[in-house]
Every structure is written in C-alpha cells, then in structure tokens.
Amino acid sequence: MFVLNGDKRILLRTLVVTRWLQEAGTKNGICQENKKEDRTSSIPPTSLIPDCSLLFPGVGSGSIIIHDVEPIRYIWLAARSDTMGKGTVVMAYSGGLDTSICIPLLKERYDYDRVVTVAVNVGQGDEEIAVATKKGEKFADAHYTIDSRDRFVTEYLFPAIRANGSYEGYPMGTALARPLIAEEVVRVALREKARTVAHGCTGKGNDQLRFDFIFRIAGLEVVAPIRELNLTREWEIEYAKEHKIPVPVIKEKPWSIDENLWSRSIEGGRLEDPAYHPPDEIFGWTVPVEKAPDKPEQITLEFLKGIPIKMNGEAMSGRDLITKLNIVAGKHGIGRSDMIEDRILGLKARENYEHPAATVILAAHADLEQLTLTRQELAFKRIVDDKWSELAYMGLVHEPLFHDLNAFITESQQKVNGKVDLQLYKGCCRVLGRSSPEGIYSDDLVSFDSTTFDQCHATGVSAYYGIQARLVEERKKK
Ligand code: ARG
Predict the structure, then answer these.
(1) Distance from residue 101's CA to the centre of ligand 1 (Å)
(2) Confidence check: pLDDT of 74 > 70
(3) Are residues 399 and 302 in the same domain?
(4) Domain check: are 410 and 452 in the same one?
C-alpha cells in the first residue's frame, strides 16, 4: 500500500496508477479522498499522460503516471494487494549519504524486493572503497565490490591521453569513470537477472546522464530516487537516522568530493560562490606552491604508441605510473584548476580539481605529438581531440562518432613514441627536452650550421608566397 502523508514526492508516487487500475476503475482497493465525484473521471485522458518511462523510469511499462495535471483533485491510493514486488534492482553505490538512503527508498517507495549494491573501484582510495563495501554488505541484500582500476586505465585513461582529453581545461576524471562504473553495474544486473538499475545522482549534474546513457543502451530501466523524489539534505539525514544509516558529519566535510586515479574534484559548500577563494583545506593531492620544494625535480616519461610506459627508465603499468606521478607532481603543487565549467544541461558550475599526473602526462604527450606528427595531422587532430573530449565529457562513449574518432586517434598514435624530460617545480611542469625515433625532425636540414638545405631554393617559394593577398593589395591601389 502506498502511504499518503501530504508530502509532494509521495503524492507523485501515489499518483502512479497501474493500467489495470484505470481500466478497473474503483475496484481493488482504490480509495478516494476529498471529493465525491465519479472517481474514474479524475484520471486524465491518455493524451495528458506523459511517457512514464522517461518521467518516472522506475514505474515500469504498463504503468501510467498522472503527473502535473492540475488541479489534482483526487489522491489515489493504489492497493497492491494482488500484485507482487518488482524484483531486484541493482544500484551503483558509493557508500555516501545519497546512495545509502536509496537502499531503503528503493524498497519502501519503489517496491523493489531486493536491492543489490555495486561499488566500483576506480582509484577513489582504499578507505572509501572499504566504507562502501562495509555499508553495502550491511544495508543491501547483496553487495559487489569490483576492482576496475586497471580497466579504467587501459580502456578510459589511455584513450584520453591519446586524445589529449580535456574539456574546458579539465582532464575529465569524473566523466571518464562514469561509463565504466555504469558498465560494471550492468554486468551485475545481468548476473542478478535484474531489469532495473539505479543510481543516486541528482537532476542537476552530469553524472545522471552519463549513467543513464549506459544503462539505457543496455536496455535496462533506470530509477534515480534522488532526482525523482526531489529530497532535501535535511530530509535525507532524518530518513537515514530512521534507518540507522550512519550520517557523515557535515561540518567536518562541507565539500562534495569525487576522486579517482585521474582527478580529484571538489565542489559544493562555499565554493558554489564563484568569487570565493578556495581554502587550502579542500586540496588533498597537491601542496600550495609556497610549500612546494625549492629544488626542481626532473623526470622522464617514455611513450609507446601514445601511451606512457616508463617513468625514469622504469617500466611500469599505467596504474602504477599514474599513482606514482600523482604523488611526485602533487608534491610540487602541480595540477590544480579552479574553473567555471559548462555542464551538459547548460548550468555553469564552479569546480576545483587536482590532477597532478594528468597534467604532466598530457603535457608530455602533446609535446611528443608535436615532434612526431605532421602539421596537417596536428591541425586535424586538434579538431578531433576537441570533439572526442566533448563526447567523453557528455558520457556518449557509444556514440558512433566517438568510435570513429577513436579509430583515427589510434591510427595517429602509431608513431607517437619517444621520451620527454620534464621539470617539476613550484606548480609548473615544463618540458626540458624530447626525443623520438619517429621524430619528423632533421637537425641536418634545420641547423644554422648546415648547408644541406639549399637556401637558394627558398627564393622560388618566396617569389610567389602569399600571392593572393598581394594581388588583392595591388587591385586596391588601382
Ligand atoms: N563537474 C565534473 C563532471 O561533471 C565533476 C563532478 C564531480 N562531482 C563531485 N561531487 N565532486 O565531470
């Protein structure tokens, strides 16, 4: 039985009337409040009923929603005496307040019989994963923790490096991790034979769309309680307490942080005022420049086909390299950004990020491309990289164009091999030198000291150089 307490979100939920109810009218425990008119007449014609799979994905097919039809005169209480629960729902789980309260919400408000949680390790830190695992095991009916760190690196970060992936200057750690997390949730859903998956994203950010895209392309139904129920923080805390879910101490942690191998994002709280200067306490990976060592540090990165394979001559996995470099470059205060970001929905948001390894790797990679790709390739690839980054930011990783761009990028990287020496010093990462067996560079041709390139030939080029512009100028004089 749906409970009515005058709360708008429950009202909406209550107004979910299954089709049999519409057909059967007053039978099976429908009751009516407020008015005495004929009950069935208060159900709006089908034309007024929005597509419920879009508006209320959790409702399922065969259901209708009476949504925003004013005046809503009746409160329908749909007795579910002859129906069963909705089976299993699998949810992406972080262990935070939002996803934790979703566990009881999915049962109480959405009528799922079983809630299965999935925590995906993309490098958010051992402690966070341990908390998610512990809470998932305690509060959900079944819990999975999946270590996808290597997959994250090889399937998402390596392509991002090859594409010089950057959205408005942000290396997209959060954006790149979401499709992978969603994919792991889908895999669990298949294993658990669940038709519905859930996430705890709000309706204002980007993650909802990134998750939904992967879920829907897999043919699953999506429920997003936080987005659909329009809950306040206060209500969530109260509800969590009722369900004995531990509530994080807000005063100590006023920021919303999202962390993985590629970046650490800090938003919310006072940072929502774009004029507010970020306090030092928000940073976890980088030191302020004033506290960075006075001595510069030199490192060498070696790339094979556009991917970093060695640091300081030592071969290591992408994951180890990124993890180590985050520490080394973070110590020098490298890789902070404070920006106004254009979200997918059009909202501008103030974002702070830390991404020491990403800053260094992307700088080295772009530099090596400059040595190994032709001018034409570079110019075209800048366009491709931009589009790739936009699609990656939007989470549209199965958009056919994304695959097409990846094909071009992969092909272009076959000769992006070589070494880059970098200096890390006081918040700056500077390329000191680069070398490549594939470098399109000939010191013999370009050197001041060589005569191999016969300068006389340039006279012929120069004679007609800019000929069109010169003709235009001549015409003006006539
Ligand atoms: N704005 C970034 C993105 O959409 C990062 C958001 C991270 N979320 C957070 N709660 N800090 O990719």
Answers:
(1) 20
(2) no
(3) yes
(4) no
